[in-house]
Automatic annotation (TrEMBL), chains A, B:
The keyword Lipid biosynthesis does not apply. Keywords: DNA-binding, Repressor, Transcription, Transcription regulation. Residues 2-55 form the HTH lacI-type domain. The lineage of its organism: Bacteria, Bacillati, Actinomycetota, Actinomycetes, Kitasatosporales. InterPro entries: HTH_LacI (IPR000843), LacI/GalR-like_sensor (IPR046335), Lambda_DNA-bd_dom_sf (IPR010982), Peripla_BP_I (IPR028082). Pfam families: LacI, Peripla_BP_3. It comes from the Bacteria. Coiled coil: none annotated. This is LacI family transcriptional regulator. PROSITE patterns: HTH_LACI_1, HTH_LACI_2. SUPFAM superfamilies: lambda repressor-like DNA-binding domains, Periplasmic binding protein-like I.
Length: 333, 333
DNA sequence: CCTCCCCAAGAAATCGATTACACCTCCGAT
DNA sequence: ATCGGAGGTGTAATCGATTTCTTGGGGAGG
């Protein structure tokens, strides 16, 4: 592949001039033409590796995503990618697969590659490596999940309004025994969702006792199913369940189906995170929709602010409730 | 951040020695210890950008995916990422969003970043840039979708057996008027699926006339819905439809539902690509499952073979049929 | 005791760009 | 006429690693 020296020779100028022309520094028509012609003829493309070494800017952002196969995170990644690209950055995606060790491994790799900034939707609570990121001076923004003790802005959704509305509807529909499936204590996101839901229910005179708070470290299908099974074995099983993740919700639904129970007749089901195909499930699922694409965009902007040394605060965007049949609503058209 | 010079000074050796120790070249116990100690104390990490410049190897692979929000490609990307990582490469993902222009843009960026190799699940037929990739000497492997005129190995699934089985079942279930929703003529994948399905049906005495071949350039939800609508307006509407993409299938299902038709009673529906939540749709969807993860793995291995100068052939892995209720099977447990 | 060889380690070139600095030329002002 | 400034261009330093070439010291063999 042709390099800048070849171009310089062909155009009869020095490499400095070529560089200047290409970076739009000193455009003297005549010289400029010759250089651009040479670039054309040789099909020259600047080597980004060399450029990055010299300028200490790679033009790449890193994104650590907790689980790429989870549709919520997929859409998030897609939005981040879009926004980064439109701002001239490319994106290196690392999929933690909900495994803290793998996440650390990936962060390490990204730091070694000298990405300009890092977005992390953290798996678990392992923050040792995140502390290193901060120490290394690499701009960091947390996404969707905050991590205590890490000094970095966090971009995420606020479920308060949606949960308040949900509690009201459940109460109005006559549900008396709500339950929640949530990430284990110690995960900030999980604790927050639990607290907000509980408070919202209390406002309508509904209690959320500990026996109807089910948690599982396995934030997947099987975890959701196991928790639902435990719920149904209670002397007074719940008549409305909020699953704080879409995969767990599917597991829960499997368990209900396996026991011959019907949604929403026997148990209402509500899911955190809306996904396009929720309209196609049986029954269509009521969801708490996070503003996914906006979160992605905001995260990129916040990160860029940090990269450029501008001040950057945390961002909180409102989630909203999307009522469908699974919580006892009339079918949507 | 500490660099190799700092380490050298601290250990009282030259940079060359540090480099050798770190790359396991000259292991003299005593010197080695001192260097490693210095590395520890300074928290030194080699700068991959500098290393890449010198060695002309970045240790990164590129993956162009036609649509990241399509669950099939998500799983594919996940598998590729896993495999690449386990082999010491990191992955830069570019999402073409089914737009050829964006795809070209991304390929350009990846080439400029001097990735070691490129995997492309191509959007559309635009192959001008792919030709450039080949010309640039960057190892290239096509994934899922072959591109005529591009001299690169292609890793994809073979639907013959699955389609043959499907045709047999449809015939046995008494379906007489099969139809297919497919990518427009000119896309190799679409044409192949059409030809295979038609041949398989013919073996059971079923015809697939052109009026029951619906295509749409929009490989998404709306495209699928439009085609299904046209089918249903035929004097003799189909009684079994194969959608060659999962998003198009959802669109088709929406149209059926909107018209008050029932699956599979009125129309049987079969989908290309299996997705975890197909068991949760109403009704559960019969699918032709591609060996997604194996495809991803194979693609990485094929690419690595090319990178290392070993010969690499195209790979064809068998897809298989997963019968569920939407094509008239008994409910699966 | 001298020579030769081998091996470890240092010095310096190199990868391909950007950029500080020096130089040269041309022009206008004093 | 001379000086100063400005603008364009070339020379060379630089980024941080790897790698080639060179050097020096120690051990073995004569």
């Amino acid at each position: 592949m042709a390099n800048i020296k070849d171009v310089a020779e062909r155009a009869g100028v020095s490499v400095a001039t070529v560089s200047r022309v290409l970076n739009g520094r000193s455009p003297v028509a005549e010289t400029r033409e010759r250089v651009l012609a040479a670039v054309q003829e040789l099909g020259y493309r600047p080597n980004n590796v060399a450029r990055a070494l010299r300028t200490a800017r790679t033009g790449a952002l890193g994104l650590i995503i907790s689980d790429l196969t989870n549709p919520f995170f997929t859409e998030l990644a897609d939005a981040v990618e879009d926004e980064a690209r439109s701002l001239g950055y490319s994106l290196v995606i690392g999929n933690a697969g909900e495994r803290p060790a793998q996440q650390d491994d990936y962060i390490r790799t990204l730091l070694d590659r000298r990405i300009d900034g890092l977005l992390v939707s953290s798996a678990g609570t392992g923050s040792a490596m995140l502390r290193e990121v901060v120490a290394s001076g690499t701009p960091l923004v947390l996404l969707d999940r905050s991590v205590p003790g890490i000094d970095a802005p966090c971009v995420r959704a606020d479920g308060r309004a949606a949960l308040t509305e949900l509690a009201g509807r459940l109460a109005a529909l006559g549900r008396r025994r709500p339950a929640i499936i949530v990430a284990p204590a110690g995960t900030p996101t999980g604790e927050e969702r639990l607290a907000l839901f509980r408070a919202a229910l209390a406002a309508h005179g509904l209690a959320l006792p500990d026996e109807r708070v089910g948690s599982t470290p396995d934030l997947q299908h099987t975890g959701g199913r196991r928790v639902m099974s435990a719920f149904l074995d209670l002397p007074e099983p719940p008549d409305a369940v909020l699953a704080t993740d879409n995969l767990m919700a599917l597991g829960a639904m499997d368990e209900l189906r396996a026991r011959g129970l019907r949604v929403p007749d026997d148990v209402a089901l509500v899911v955190y995170d809306d996904v396009p195909w929720f309209t196609h499930t049986d029954p269509p699922l009521t969801a708490i929709a996070q503003p996914t694409r906006e979160l992605g965009r905001a995260a990129v902007h916040t990160l860029l602010a940090r990269i450029e040394g501008r001040p950057a605060d945390s961002v909180l965007l409102p989630a909203h409730l999307v009522p469908r049949r699974s919580c006892g609503e009339p079918p949507t058209p």
